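Progress report, Aim 2. The chain analyzed during this reporting quarter is listed below.
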Amino acid sequence: MPFLFGVTGADELAGVVLVRLLGDLGVGAAAARAQLARMRIDGQLAASHRGRQAHYRLAGPFAASFRHVRDASGGGAPRWDGHFHALLYQVPEAQRAYRDRLRRMAQLVGYGLMQQGVLIAVRDLTGELGAVIAECPAGCRVQAATIALPAADAAEVARAAWDLEAVAATFRGHIGTLSAALAAEGSPPPTAATLARFAEVLNAVYVDLIRDPRLPAALLPPDWPRPELDRLMGRVRERFLPAASRYARSVMAEAE
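Predicted C-alpha coordinates for the chain:
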Protein backbone atom coordinates (compact mmCIF):
# COMPACT_ATOMS: atom_id res chain seq x y z
CA MET A 1 0.00 0.00 0.00
CA PRO A 2 2.72 2.56 0.84
CA PHE A 3 4.34 1.71 -2.51
CA LEU A 4 1.23 2.95 -4.35
CA PHE A 5 1.14 6.19 -2.38
CA GLY A 6 4.81 6.67 -3.20
CA VAL A 7 4.35 6.01 -6.92
CA THR A 8 1.40 8.38 -7.26
CA GLY A 9 2.94 11.03 -5.01
CA ALA A 10 -0.53 11.53 -3.48
CA ASP A 11 -1.36 11.91 0.19
CA GLU A 12 -4.85 10.55 -0.40
CA LEU A 13 -6.21 8.03 -2.92
CA ALA A 14 -9.73 6.98 -3.85
CA GLY A 15 -10.72 3.45 -2.91
CA VAL A 16 -11.52 2.56 -6.51
CA VAL A 17 -8.03 3.68 -7.55
CA LEU A 18 -6.36 1.60 -4.85
CA VAL A 19 -8.43 -1.46 -5.79
CA ARG A 20 -7.54 -1.00 -9.47
CA LEU A 21 -3.82 -0.53 -8.80
CA LEU A 22 -3.71 -3.41 -6.35
CA GLY A 23 -5.32 -5.48 -9.09
CA ASP A 24 -2.43 -4.54 -11.36
CA LEU A 25 -0.12 -5.92 -8.66
CA GLY A 26 -1.97 -9.23 -8.62
CA VAL A 27 -4.41 -8.65 -5.74
CA GLY A 28 -8.03 -9.57 -6.55
CA ALA A 29 -10.74 -6.95 -6.09
CA ALA A 30 -12.39 -8.71 -3.14
CA ALA A 31 -9.04 -9.23 -1.42
CA ALA A 32 -8.09 -5.59 -2.07
CA ARG A 33 -11.31 -4.31 -0.48
CA ALA A 34 -10.82 -6.63 2.47
CA GLN A 35 -7.26 -5.32 2.87
CA LEU A 36 -8.49 -1.72 2.89
CA ALA A 37 -11.08 -2.56 5.54
CA ARG A 38 -8.56 -4.45 7.67
CA MET A 39 -5.98 -1.67 7.49
CA ARG A 40 -8.62 0.89 8.44
CA ILE A 41 -9.64 -1.19 11.48
CA ASP A 42 -5.99 -1.54 12.47
CA GLY A 43 -5.46 2.24 12.25
CA GLN A 44 -3.06 1.98 9.32
CA LEU A 45 -5.42 3.85 7.00
CA ALA A 46 -7.82 6.71 7.65
CA ALA A 47 -10.84 7.23 5.40
CA SER A 48 -12.99 10.17 4.37
CA HIS A 49 -15.93 10.33 1.96
CA ARG A 50 -16.68 12.58 -0.97
CA GLY A 51 -20.20 11.77 -1.98
CA ARG A 52 -20.31 7.99 -2.32
CA GLN A 53 -16.58 7.68 -2.90
CA ALA A 54 -14.22 6.68 -0.07
CA HIS A 55 -10.73 8.16 -0.04
CA TYR A 56 -7.87 6.74 2.02
CA ARG A 57 -4.63 8.07 3.48
CA LEU A 58 -1.90 6.39 5.52
CA ALA A 59 -2.31 6.92 9.26
CA GLY A 60 -0.69 6.44 12.66
CA PRO A 61 2.66 4.69 13.19
CA PHE A 62 2.19 2.97 9.83
CA ALA A 63 2.29 6.38 8.13
CA ALA A 64 5.24 7.35 10.31
CA SER A 65 7.17 4.29 9.14
CA PHE A 66 6.44 5.25 5.51
CA ARG A 67 7.78 8.77 6.14
CA HIS A 68 10.78 7.29 7.96
CA VAL A 69 11.70 5.23 4.90
CA ARG A 70 10.83 7.91 2.33
CA ASP A 71 12.60 10.79 4.05
CA ALA A 72 15.67 8.79 5.08
CA SER A 73 16.36 7.35 1.64
CA GLY A 74 19.51 8.99 0.37
CA GLY A 75 19.57 11.42 3.31
CA GLY A 76 22.47 12.01 5.65
CA ALA A 77 22.71 10.03 8.88
CA PRO A 78 22.24 11.88 12.18
CA ARG A 79 25.19 12.60 14.43
CA TRP A 80 25.82 10.79 17.70
CA ASP A 81 25.07 13.14 20.57
CA GLY A 82 26.21 10.73 23.26
CA HIS A 83 22.84 9.34 24.29
CA PHE A 84 19.87 7.31 23.16
CA HIS A 85 16.30 8.48 23.57
CA ALA A 86 14.51 5.71 25.44
CA LEU A 87 11.06 4.46 26.33
CA LEU A 88 10.93 2.58 29.63
CA TYR A 89 7.83 0.46 30.00
CA GLN A 90 6.37 -1.65 32.76
CA VAL A 91 3.42 -3.73 31.60
CA PRO A 92 2.12 -6.69 33.62
CA GLU A 93 1.41 -10.00 31.93
CA ALA A 94 -2.32 -9.36 32.22
CA GLN A 95 -1.84 -6.48 29.73
CA ARG A 96 0.49 -8.32 27.36
CA ALA A 97 -1.66 -7.34 24.35
CA TYR A 98 -0.86 -3.69 25.05
CA ARG A 99 2.82 -4.50 25.63
CA ASP A 100 3.04 -6.32 22.31
CA ARG A 101 1.25 -3.48 20.50
CA LEU A 102 3.55 -0.86 22.07
CA ARG A 103 6.67 -2.78 21.08
CA ARG A 104 5.41 -3.51 17.56
CA MET A 105 4.45 0.10 16.87
CA ALA A 106 7.63 1.46 18.46
CA GLN A 107 9.83 -0.77 16.33
CA LEU A 108 7.80 0.20 13.26
CA VAL A 109 8.72 3.88 13.69
CA GLY A 110 12.39 3.20 14.45
CA TYR A 111 12.94 2.07 18.03
CA GLY A 112 15.17 -0.89 18.84
CA LEU A 113 14.77 -3.25 21.79
CA MET A 114 17.73 -2.76 24.14
CA GLN A 115 16.32 -5.22 26.67
CA GLN A 116 12.95 -6.15 28.11
CA GLY A 117 11.29 -2.92 29.21
CA VAL A 118 13.69 -0.61 27.34
CA LEU A 119 13.22 0.67 23.79
CA ILE A 120 15.84 3.02 22.31
CA ALA A 121 16.20 5.39 19.36
CA VAL A 122 18.75 7.97 18.26
CA ARG A 123 16.13 10.72 18.27
CA ASP A 124 12.94 11.35 20.19
CA LEU A 125 10.16 9.45 18.41
CA THR A 126 7.50 9.68 21.13
CA GLY A 127 5.50 12.06 18.96
CA GLU A 128 5.01 9.25 16.45
CA LEU A 129 3.61 7.05 19.21
CA GLY A 130 1.32 9.56 20.91
CA ALA A 131 -1.87 7.59 20.30
CA VAL A 132 -0.35 4.30 21.47
CA ILE A 133 1.16 5.84 24.61
CA ALA A 134 -2.17 7.50 25.39
CA GLU A 135 -3.80 4.04 25.40
CA CYS A 136 -1.59 2.89 28.29
CA PRO A 137 -3.89 0.90 30.61
CA ALA A 138 -4.18 1.44 34.36
CA GLY A 139 -1.40 -0.36 36.18
CA CYS A 140 1.05 0.10 33.30
CA ARG A 141 3.74 2.71 32.87
CA VAL A 142 5.51 4.17 29.82
CA GLN A 143 8.22 6.72 30.59
CA ALA A 144 10.53 8.67 28.26
CA ALA A 145 14.19 8.84 29.29
CA THR A 146 17.73 9.22 27.96
CA ILE A 147 20.58 6.72 28.23
CA ALA A 148 24.08 8.18 27.90
CA LEU A 149 26.86 5.90 26.62
CA PRO A 150 30.32 6.22 25.07
CA ALA A 151 30.21 5.65 21.31
CA ALA A 152 31.93 2.25 21.48
CA ASP A 153 29.45 0.95 24.06
CA ALA A 154 26.52 2.49 22.18
CA ALA A 155 27.63 0.70 19.00
CA GLU A 156 27.55 -2.66 20.82
CA VAL A 157 24.09 -1.89 22.19
CA ALA A 158 22.86 -0.82 18.74
CA ARG A 159 24.22 -3.96 17.07
CA ALA A 160 21.98 -6.14 19.24
CA ALA A 161 19.00 -3.77 19.58
CA TRP A 162 18.46 -3.59 15.81
CA ASP A 163 20.13 -6.89 14.82
CA LEU A 164 22.39 -4.94 12.48
CA GLU A 165 24.27 -7.96 11.15
CA ALA A 166 21.03 -9.51 9.86
CA VAL A 167 19.90 -6.16 8.42
CA ALA A 168 23.22 -5.78 6.58
CA ALA A 169 22.93 -9.29 5.12
CA THR A 170 19.41 -8.52 3.90
CA PHE A 171 20.54 -5.27 2.30
CA ARG A 172 23.38 -7.02 0.49
CA GLY A 173 20.88 -9.47 -0.93
CA HIS A 174 18.79 -6.58 -2.24
CA ILE A 175 21.90 -5.00 -3.77
CA GLY A 176 22.40 -8.15 -5.83
CA THR A 177 18.75 -8.20 -6.93
CA LEU A 178 18.70 -4.53 -7.96
CA SER A 179 22.00 -4.81 -9.81
CA ALA A 180 20.64 -7.74 -11.82
CA ALA A 181 17.41 -5.90 -12.65
CA LEU A 182 19.29 -2.83 -13.85
CA ALA A 183 21.57 -4.92 -16.04
CA ALA A 184 18.68 -6.79 -17.65
CA GLU A 185 16.08 -4.12 -18.41
CA GLY A 186 15.84 -0.93 -20.45
CA SER A 187 13.40 2.00 -20.37
CA PRO A 188 9.83 0.74 -19.76
CA PRO A 189 6.51 2.10 -21.13
CA PRO A 190 3.74 3.59 -18.91
CA THR A 191 1.74 0.39 -18.45
CA ALA A 192 0.30 -1.80 -15.71
CA ALA A 193 3.11 -4.28 -16.42
CA THR A 194 5.69 -1.59 -15.66
CA LEU A 195 3.96 -0.75 -12.38
CA ALA A 196 3.97 -4.43 -11.44
CA ARG A 197 7.63 -4.86 -12.36
CA PHE A 198 8.59 -1.72 -10.41
CA ALA A 199 6.79 -3.13 -7.37
CA GLU A 200 8.43 -6.52 -7.85
CA VAL A 201 11.89 -4.96 -7.91
CA LEU A 202 11.53 -2.41 -5.11
CA ASN A 203 8.66 -3.32 -2.78
CA ALA A 204 10.58 -5.91 -0.77
CA VAL A 205 13.42 -3.41 -0.40
CA TYR A 206 11.09 -0.78 1.03
CA VAL A 207 9.63 -3.29 3.47
CA ASP A 208 13.09 -4.17 4.75
CA LEU A 209 14.20 -0.53 4.95
CA ILE A 210 11.83 -0.18 7.92
CA ARG A 211 14.40 -2.25 9.84
CA ASP A 212 17.13 0.35 9.26
CA PRO A 213 17.22 2.76 12.24
CA ARG A 214 19.40 5.26 10.32
CA LEU A 215 22.06 5.32 13.02
CA PRO A 216 24.97 7.74 13.22
CA ALA A 217 28.08 6.48 11.46
CA ALA A 218 29.84 6.02 14.80
CA LEU A 219 27.34 3.30 15.73
CA LEU A 220 27.33 1.35 12.46
CA PRO A 221 29.36 -1.76 11.59
CA PRO A 222 32.20 -1.42 9.05
CA ASP A 223 31.18 -1.57 5.38
CA TRP A 224 27.55 -0.77 6.15
CA PRO A 225 25.73 -1.48 2.84
CA ARG A 226 22.97 1.12 3.03
CA PRO A 227 24.76 3.80 0.93
CA GLU A 228 25.24 1.34 -1.96
CA LEU A 229 21.63 0.19 -1.63
CA ASP A 230 20.45 3.82 -1.77
CA ARG A 231 22.52 4.41 -4.90
CA LEU A 232 20.99 1.44 -6.69
CA MET A 233 17.48 2.31 -5.54
CA GLY A 234 17.98 5.75 -7.03
CA ARG A 235 18.92 4.20 -10.37
CA VAL A 236 15.91 1.88 -10.27
CA ARG A 237 13.59 4.81 -9.53
CA GLU A 238 15.10 6.77 -12.41
CA ARG A 239 14.47 3.79 -14.69
CA PHE A 240 10.93 2.83 -13.62
CA LEU A 241 9.26 5.65 -11.66
CA PRO A 242 8.42 8.09 -14.48
CA ALA A 243 6.55 5.46 -16.50
CA ALA A 244 4.92 3.81 -13.46
CA SER A 245 3.80 7.20 -12.15
CA ARG A 246 2.33 8.20 -15.53
CA TYR A 247 0.33 4.99 -15.64
CA ALA A 248 -0.90 5.33 -12.03
CA ARG A 249 -1.96 8.91 -12.62
CA SER A 250 -3.87 7.87 -15.72
CA VAL A 251 -5.85 5.47 -13.51
CA MET A 252 -6.49 8.32 -11.05
CA ALA A 253 -7.71 10.54 -13.88
CA GLU A 254 -10.12 7.87 -15.12
CA ALA A 255 -11.66 7.63 -11.64
CA GLU A 256 -12.39 11.35 -11.34
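The mean pLDDT is 92. Strands lie at 13-14, 45-50, 53-58, 83-90, 112-115, 118-121, 141-148. These observations will guide the mutagenesis work planned for the next reporting period.
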